[in-house]
Amino acid sequence: MKKKKLQKSYLIYFGKTVLILFLSTLISLALDGFGMQTANIIMIYLIGVLMIIVETSGYVWGMVSSVACICCMNFFFTEPRYTLRIADREHALMLVLFLVVCFISGTLMSRLQKHADEAISNEEHARRLYRISSGYLNISGMENILRYAVESLPEAQGREGIVYLAKSLSELEAAVYAKPLTSAVEEALRETAAAQWCLTNLLPCGVGTSFFVTSKWKYLPVKSKTTILGVVGLYCGRDDVPESEMPFIHALLSQLALAIERELLDHRQKETRMQVEKARLKNDLLRLISHDLRTPLTGIAGSSGFLCESYDRLDKETILKLLRDISSDATWLSNLVENLLSMTRIQDNKLQIKKEKEVVDDIIAETASRVERTLKNHHLSFDIPKEILAVPMDGRLIIQVLVNLVENAENHTRKNADIRICVRKEGEEAVFEVQDNGGGIDEALLPQIFEGFVTSNTNGMDANRGIGLGLTICKSIIEAHNGRMEAYNNGEGGATFRFALPL
Amino acid sequence: MNEKYKIAIIEDDKSILNFLTVSLNTNGYEVITASKGLEGISLFLNENPDLILLDLGLPDIDGLSVIRQIRSSSEVPIIVVSARGQEQEKIEALDHGADDYITKPFYLGELLARIRVALRKRRQKEESPEVFVLDDFQLDFAKRRVFVDGEEVHLTPIEFKLLSVLVENAGKVLTHGFLIRSVWGYANDDDSQSLRVFMANLRRKIEKNTADPKYIRTEVGVGYRFAEK
Predict the structure, then answer these.
(1) Residue in B84, B197, B221 nearest the CB of A395
(2) Are A189 and A175 in contact (CB under 8 A)?
(3) Scanning every residue of chain B, which has its alpha carbon at the shortest distance from the alpha carbon of A393?
(4) Subunit contact B199:A359, Cβ cutoff 8 A
(5) Is the peptide bond before A80 cis (omega within 30 degrees of 0)?
(6) Complex ipTM above 0.85?
(7) What pLDDT, on the 0 to 100 scale, is given for residue A457?
């Protein structure tokens, strides 16, 4: 294709040259007929040559035509006419000077042309650079930045590109390249050693360098002020990137470096914020734990201390009562510890749930046996489906949720209230409800009831101990199962806590 | 009991050790103690106890190694004590040869019941009853028939096999793995879901209230246990 283009421009330039020469000669002959001086004729030919230089945008044609002009002038206008001999020495000098003038103008012309071309090319580069940099401004996410880089590189400077992000100072992440996969990129993927070398040595390698000379790619380091961020490969084939293009390419690489750095800083900032948040939550948790632990411990210490001192003076009734109190406080503490342990697993951002398909009967049975001991004044009943319902869940955690809900119901309802656990299948979900008819929840508290420990201590009532922590954990557990949880006052004068798990 | 059974307690926490020693003594057992795993093994070798209570959270060696050591020379009943929420440990202990487990914090009544079961197993190893009876439940091994409340319950062959394995080991917890191996012959861990469904079906046939089962109790995450007398 290049050859054809060359041939076409060849023909055009040839045509132009011949035409202008012809015209110049014609005009000169005409003017000569009118008795014009030779000096003017030279000017006309000079104009002709200059026009040829402009039209053919090159040095060569201009020079060829200036020689042709001399021949024409010699032939047509100098004595003896119509010969190529020169009688007058002055005329010879004139022709030589003509040649010199043509030479100089030709040189000037072509330099001017080159500068003009360069200016246009620079402007084009600058425009592309601007377009690409504004592109980077709108992109976030490392993956997107790298993808944008490999897509914009060919567009900007016509060569396929491949980008490697640096994982550390000695390791590269996987290559990012534009889809679809081309054979050139496949070659690059086979020679990752070259990119690796570029990373560890902070120097370009590949085409045009003395390292990995057999490669058809040129690898360049992407550097920031303090460190190397990655490696970019440009497909060159066999020919190196021209020196004049390198500044533009370096500019593109700096943009990429800036975008990558910005992304890394962003990431670091987010992490710092998370750490601060975590620290704050830990403090809140510690505050709550201390309060919730103190109360039952005070009870245990007090009761047992008193028993030790005054054992002989007390009647059996009183002793048994104190002992029962100690026992229930201890159970309460034990449950709190269970909840806290689950809580720490949640706080680490990932709740480790291991889902298995558990049969509802098993879950309810275990819940029942756990709460059995504490259910002194309440009636517990169940309502489970006749068909076997197996639900994917972490059995222990869901049992913990149910136990929490039942114990909450016990602690916050009047004596002899009924508590019922219902389970049924609704569409693609298994719905669990813990209902009671023992008084209900204060409407004001209802919207924040799952919000957690920060609000549960606002009234400081020790009798309300634990409600906040338990419900927050329940909600987190359910949400970790991709389920939903809610609470409301039901129509039977009590509250219902309801959660749904996907099947 | 004519003779006092000797129970070895291997537990590192002093208060728990105290409490156990006193309670077991009060209930008619002789108690010997060790607070470290290695100590416990030599205690077992020297004193030949009738039952071992082993805490899984020992400071020096891993509870499983203790079980392995003891099992290499004896079938003495072992009950492991573990903290709540450590299912994996419990299952491993049971698969390594422990007979039963109890989770902290536990109630003495439960522990005593399990000790009784474990000791009984030892005595009754040779005699296997033809018919097992517990309250309203009756299982006739020879005739392969099951009766609840006087009425016969029809079970599929697999259900019957499952039930017999549970009843033969009444009072003892059987892991999912153990049950699958006994009934189906291979241990395919992924299949515990079908086991669960089988058990649920079985319960529906035998129990009056499947949410509050009298006979077949589930130990969620670990396995199943048939109630004992």
Answers:
(1) B221
(2) yes
(3) B221
(4) yes
(5) yes
(6) no
(7) 38
